[in-house]
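User: Here's a protein and a ligand (histidyl-adenosine monophosphate). What would the complex look like?
Assistant: Let me lay out the input and then the predicted complex.
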Amino acid sequence: MKTFKMVRGMRDFLPEEAEMLRLIEDKARRIAQLYGYKEIITPVVESYGLLAAKTGEEVRARMYAFKDLGGRKVALRPEFTASVARLVATTMRNEPKPLRLLCIGSLYRYDEPQKGRFREFWQSNFELIGSEKPEADAEIILLTNSLMKSVGLKNYAFKIGHIGVLRGILSREGLAEDAQNRALQLMDKKQYEDALSLVKDAGASEKCLTLLQKMVKVRGSNIFNVLNEMKKLVEKYKEAYEAVNNLAEILELISEVQKLDITLDAGFARGLEYYTGIIFEVYVPELDIALAGGGRYDRLVELFGGEPTPAVGVAHGIDRIMLALQEQKAPLKFQGEKTVMVIPVSEALNQEALRISEILRAEGIPVEVEVMGRKVAKALEDANRRGTPYVVIVGERELSEGAVTLRNMEKKEQRTVKIEELAKAIRTELH
Ligand code: HAM
């Protein structure tokens, strides 16, 4: 007989893990409600061209891309932002702004499997579309903070930068967008030496190289000191200077509203190519991979044929949040309802057991009915093992009086209850 293994990089979620994933999704949906985001559902399969346009070399090279049977070049989505921008540029182009959209689902990247890096993973992705104001950037960071707090994460910190600062410098030096992208990809991977030699080869001045060398060392958690240092460094680069001012405005707004743990990093770059403004990631001390990442992307909608539309967003890595909670030994507790078990004393009463189970479910009580044909003692043993708090035993004698036996498993006590009063009896005992 042939047995099958899971495909490398894929995972099964057993009940406990599946429950945790769904719980985090529920928290994300609650945050969406609190901040006014509406959920949309976009397809897992999108055209390769759309997904490849601005995802950056790192993600582009790892896409699950293939031709479908109609010969179309397609790919499994590696992120949500391209799909959202497509919608905003087309079907949703006339929707009043701001638009606040939430996507939750699975994404696919052919990453090398390792701790916290999977080929199928889940995100909750928030996009705020139509505002160029710092309040919009602040909202995305604040809602990310709310989510991290609401799942029970401790000691999480934001790493923040502004891609407009680095691009402002590189553009002034006349670097083409392609060369800028390659340099920023290297900086994202912290290969600063390689990034600088690329910038040099692309024709940047010595002055610029010295400046970049200094820039990539400017970081710290005293954000207003770091901002001042950045301002001093880029004084002569107008666009970069404006970008630092924009960053300062956003951070000032946030600091008046929430006390966040922030490290500001002037040399911070992210792999995705569509960013134009603030960029950020979230970390916990237990893991060296980001739990969430986001930023401002003001030109993507336009690139996909829409009106010029400023936008900012974030994606929270649900798998990594789960991992971080496990590392912090603070797994989310599921406050699920307890299930009642219904056991017939003989096969002749199977139908009655089904009927009584349906009555209880109609009253909103979760029921597992005995389907293994076991004797009562064996079925009770099983109920015990599963921690079932109450068992309904359906017996001939009680049934003839329209009643059943309700057993409290913990107290090992039982009593006879009329079927029409059963739901109420269980509910009062359960609470
Ligand atoms: P990203 O940084 O590529 O951004 O991904 C966001 C988060 O998804 C990461 O911080 C991480 O938690 C999770 N993630 C990414 N790759 C993997 C993987 N292989 N395994 C497990 N988790 C992973 C984006 O996707 C952007 N679309 C975010 C965004 C939205 N920017 C603006 N709007």
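Summary: The pocket of histidyl-adenosine monophosphate is lined by residues 79-81, 109, 111, 116-118, 121, 123, 125, 127, 272, 290-295, 297, 313-315, 317, 319-320 (CB under 6 Å).
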